[in-house]
Each structure stands twice: as structure tokens, then as C-alpha cells.
Amino acid sequence: MHQRLEQLGVGPLRITDSLGEATLAGAGCSVLDQSESFCSCRELVVTHPRFYRKIVTRGSLGFGDAYVDGDWNSPDLPALLETLAEVSVEESNERNPTRLALSAWQRLQQLLNRNSPRGSRRNISFHYDLSNQLFALFLDPTFTYSCGIFSNASTTLEEASLAKYQRICEKLELSPRDHVLEIGCGWGGFVEYAVQHYGCRVTAVTISREQLNFAKQRIAATGLADRVDLQFCDYRHLTGKFDKLVSIEMIEAVGHDYLPAFVEKCDSLLKPSGKMMLQAITIPDHRYDAYRRRVDFIQKYIFPGGCLVSLERLARVVHQHSTLRELQSCDFAADYQKMLLAWREKFLASREQVRALHPGDRFLRAWDYYFSYCAAGFARGKIGVSQILLEKDSGTNQRTTAQ
């Protein structure tokens, strides 16, 4: 493992084993004296020797498994994972029996977690129906669970969420005349903001029962129910025509195989010249094919069936399967790192409430790793987040439909 870290240019790291013996690993160790490096480098504390077996046999997934199982710790998990970001995306090319078995297991998991209508309901429920009480522990008062926009270092989570909603509404040029569709409405944060500030009508859908119940209660409490239609509905079953369409970080739950059908459906739901704002977590195109064929930590523990899109892949699908055209796109990945670290801080500050909802440490450690792992990905450019503004062609010609 030490040789691998140095080959990748990662380090220096201080690794303390289960016997309490500390060593230095990774690039740069030879030019640092012990006192300097021990103070400045990232630290990984191995608490059980099975840690080594897990990373040898399961790679980066085993590294995450070992953390959930309590086989290692770090005094600064986000910083350590950011340092190890280059390692975490590397997988062994060795065709040994253990790796072959892992690949077979991953293919089976992908088949079981496919985002068919039934599979999507199951996958969404796994995460979003954990309980509204859990999400209330770390989300801001708007109950926004997507990347916001930070204008400066003092921007709060709530301010970042509202700034995101404002930008979406401004880019779509919302007006009281508009009938807006939101696919994947979460707990209703955007719905409430759009109706309150722009006077539009909104139809919004989710396939999470917990989210739907919460959203209905919040809209009723604000007196906006006459302008809002909240539905438990899969996007594939939507009908009608809308002036504007919004989908905020829902596309990650669509899946590679269903992306053409999703784009076609969005195109069919928009009136001619209608606009769509899509906010999506993205992965670089050169990593996309390898990524979508395996099960990573997030898919195993947090979002089964989840699949990030690449901007290039999305652009091809939009061109081939719709009359939509891209007007503009912007990436704000640095803001997601801030969002995730703020969520993590609030989550860990509520650890006793988390344990009351999910006894033991495994759930707590899995979510700690989730927040830290994703924050590291955004910090190192391994993943991004973009807002993509699209417009439907004003004509009637339709492109090739999905098979």
C-alpha cells in the first residue's frame, strides 16, 4: 500500500496501525523529518488488521466498507479523503478470483437496482423515506437537499439555498402567467419559493411518500395550495404541457439506461419555446463509462441505483432524443464542497439524535463518510455540479425517439 501511494504521488500520510506503530507513507516522505511530517500530514489510524484485507480485495469500496465497520479512523476525515482522492478512483486491474467475484457482485447489484418504475420507487424510498426527522437534523430551514450558491464566506446554508432558487427563477424568466413543472420536488423548497416570489402555478412530483407528505403540509401552511398541485408520480407517467420545467438534482436517480427516455419525456412536456432548468451532479466524460459499470460507496450505502451524468453524454442524448437546445451552463462545484461540509458538521453535532433514529455506529459512520467522500470529490474536481438551461424548439419536428 505504501508503494502504491508513492507511485500515485499521494502523501505524505501518517498511518498508525492497530499496534500503535506510526509510519509515513506516500510521496514526499523522504524529504520530511519525522516531527515535521507527523504534524503536517494527513493521518489514518488503523484499528483492526482486517482493514488491509478489505482494501486489497475490494479496492476503494473496501476502503469505505472498512470505515463503516470501524476498522480505521482519522482525526480529519474530509481532509484525508481529499488527499486520497486520486487513490480512491483507482481500481486494480488484476484479474484475481476475488476481484472477479467483486465485479460479478457489482453487475448483479446494478441489475437489482435498475431504475424501472418499480425499482425507482424502491431506490428513492431507501434514502428519502428514512424519516423527515433525520433530514431536519442537518438541512437548513428551507429543507433544501441540493447545492446552493455561496456569495461569500459568511453565506449561510439557507441563504445559499434561496440564492439558488432565485437564480433558477431568473434564468427561466418566471412570471405569474407560467405553469411550471418540477420533476423531483423534494420537500417543496423550490415550489414554495417560486409561487411566493413569482406568482406562477406549479405542478410538482416526487416518488417519496415522506417528501410528499411534508411538502403538502408546508404548502398548506403558507396558504399557497390553490396554485400548487403536488403529486406522487413517476416522471414517465406525466402528461400535459408546461411553460417551464425544473429538475434539481433528480437526474442522478434516472440511470444510464433511462436517460434517453427522461430527456424525451421532458421535451414532450414543454410547450414550444418552453424553457427547462436542469441542475445535475456530473462526472468527467473520460471517467463516465468505467464509473457507470461499477458500484461505488455512494451506490452501496446511500443512493442505490444512482448514476451521475457526464455533460458530454447528456449533450449527446439531448441532441439525439429531443428538440431541446442548450442556452447556457455553469458549474459551481466549489459551493457543493461548502454545502456538504456544513451538512456534515450539523449531522455530527446531532449524533445522539441520529443514533436514536438509527442505533449503533454503522449508519452514523456511513453518512459521515458519504458527506466527506463527496466533499473531497468536488474539491478535487472528480465530480461537479452544473445548472443547464435548455429551450424547446419552437417548431414541430421531433428527433429520433428512444428505443
TrEMBL record:
<keyword id="KW-0808">Transferase</keyword>
<dbReference type="InterPro" id="IPR003333">
    <property type="entry name" value="CMAS"/>
</dbReference>
<dbReference type="GO" id="GO:0032259">
    <property type="term" value="P:methylation"/>
</dbReference>
<dbReference type="Pfam" id="PF02353">
    <property type="entry name" value="CMAS"/>
</dbReference>
<feature type="active site">
    <location>
        <position position="374"/>
    </location>
</feature>
<dbReference type="InterPro" id="IPR050723">
    <property type="entry name" value="CFA/CMAS"/>
</dbReference>
<dbReference type="GO" id="GO:0008610">
    <property type="term" value="P:lipid biosynthetic process"/>
</dbReference>
<keyword id="KW-0949">S-adenosyl-L-methionine</keyword>
<dbReference type="GO" id="GO:0008825">
    <property type="term" value="F:cyclopropane-fatty-acyl-phospholipid synthase activity"/>
</dbReference>
<comment type="similarity">
    <text>Belongs to the CFA/CMAS family.</text>
</comment>
<dbReference type="InterPro" id="IPR029063">
    <property type="entry name" value="SAM-dependent_MTases_sf"/>
</dbReference>
<keyword id="KW-0489">Methyltransferase</keyword>
<protein>
    <submittedName>
        <fullName>Cyclopropane-fatty-acyl-phospholipid synthase</fullName>
        <ecNumber>2.1.1.79</ecNumber>
    </submittedName>
</protein>
<keyword id="KW-0443">Lipid metabolism</keyword>
